[in-house]
Amino acid sequence: MLGKQELIDKLTGIRSSRRSYYSELNAMVEELQKKNKQLEVINQLTQIHVEKSWEEVSIYLASQLSKVLSFDRFLLTLIDGSDLYFYISDPCGEDWSCRLVKRFYQLGATVTTAEFKKLLKQEIVDHYGTSVCLQNQTGKIYGFLTLLNREKVKYPPEEFQFYLKIGEHVRISIENIYLYKDVSEKVKIEAQLVQSAKMAAIGEMAAGVAHELNSPLTAILGNVQLLMRQIKEERPQKMLTDIYQCGLRSKKIIQNLLAFSRQEEYQFEKLELSGLVEDVLGLVGYQLTVSGISIHKEIDSSVPPVRGSRHQIEQVLINLLLNAKDAVQETSDPEIIIGTGQTTLEGQSYAMLFVQDNGIGMDKEQMDQIFNPFYTTKSKMKGTGLGLSVSLGIVESHGGKLLVDSKINEYSKFSLLLPILTDEGDD
Ligand SMILES: Nc1ncnc2c1ncn2[C@@H]1O[C@H](COP(=O)(O)OP(=O)(O)OP(=O)(O)O)[C@@H](O)[C@H]1O
Ligand SMILES: [Mg+2]
Question: How far apart are the CA of 403 and the centre of ligand 1, in A?
Answer without folding.
Answer: 14
